[in-house]
Amino acid sequence: MSLVTSPTAQDEIAPATETAALTAYIGACDPLQVKPNKQVVRLFGSVVPHLLRVLDLGDNYLGDLGVECLAAALPLFTELRVLSVADNGVATRGITKLCAALDGGKVPLQLLDIHRNPGVTRVAGQALLNTAGRCRTLAWVNLSGTRVTAYYE
């Protein structure tokens, strides 16, 4: 993920419709000086968060900071059942921020797909385990292709 200043980030999002999810996402990107992901901007500019049940952001080059920004908008997705951030270059920081967003109990997530993110370590695995204990709806987490599963092999 590229780092840019806020004016460039604003230029990237101009065509999208302003929604609560987009506002939360952009609001989280600005202080981190993260360029908003075009696919996330396009999606969040057109979706009603409380109606979305599946959010597949796999293979979108989000990285840790991008997932951290995504996590800021997650509590708005009150009907979200499936979330994929597979193959995004996410590591421990991004997963722990994602877990913190899920710990609030507002997102009834059932399936979390983080596979093919080799930077996800045992520390992130512990954060996921703690979150699963508090998030009673979370039934399945795909960890294949991470270092969480490599630790136990």
- The CA-CA distance between the termini, in Å, is 31 Å
Shape: globular
Largest sheet descriptor: 4 strands, parallel
What is the alpha-carbon Rg in Å?
15 Å
Physical arrangement of strands within the biggest beta sheet:
1-2-3-4
Unreliable stretches, pLDDT < 50, 5 or more residues?
Answer: 1-16
Q: Helix segment count?
A: 7
Molecular structure report:
This protein is of the alpha/beta class and 153 residues long. 45% of the residues lie in helices and 8% in strands. It is built from seven helices and four strands; from the N terminus they run αααβαβαβαβα. A four-stranded parallel sheet has the order 1-2-3-4, with no helix packed on it. The radius of gyration is 15 Å and the shape is globular. The N and C termini lie far apart (31 Å). The N terminus is likely disordered.
Helix/strand layout:
Layout: H1 6-13, H2 20-32, H3 38-44, E1 54-56, H4 63-73, E2 82-84, H5 92-102, E3 111-113, H6 122-134, E4 140-142, H7 147-152
Helix pairs in contact: 2-4, 4-5, 5-6
Can you give keywords for this protein?
single chain; 153 residues; alpha/beta; 4 strands
Summarize the structure.
With 153 residues, this protein is of the alpha/beta class. It has helices at 6-13, 20-32, 38-44, 63-73, 92-102, 122-134, 147-152; strands at residues 54-56, 82-84, 111-113, 140-142. Strands 1-2-3-4 form a 4-stranded parallel beta sheet, with no helix packed on it.
